Amino acid sequence: MSASLRLKRFGTKKRPYYRIVVMDTRTARDGRAIEEIGFYHPIEAEDKQVKVDLEKVRYWVDRGATVSDTVHSLLNKQGFNLTRASV
Known about the structure:
By secondary structure, the chain is an alpha+beta fold. It has helices spanning 54-62, 69-77; strands at residues 3-12, 15-24, 35-40, 50-52, 66-67.
């Protein structure tokens, strides 16, 4: 099984919010997640937009999980630098 860190969409039309989850790469976008590790609310104020458990991110990346481009940029904004070679 190959895992990836990506976004899972929730919310209503034009009011989205996302959970940052670990999923099997073959699973649909809104399918069953292995683990939820954070959230992203793009409509909230800048300081309340993203919350991520960085220890769980490190755990999954160390075990070979890939990180989507969007989640990678969100993690960089949080100060959690991943090199593209390790992703």
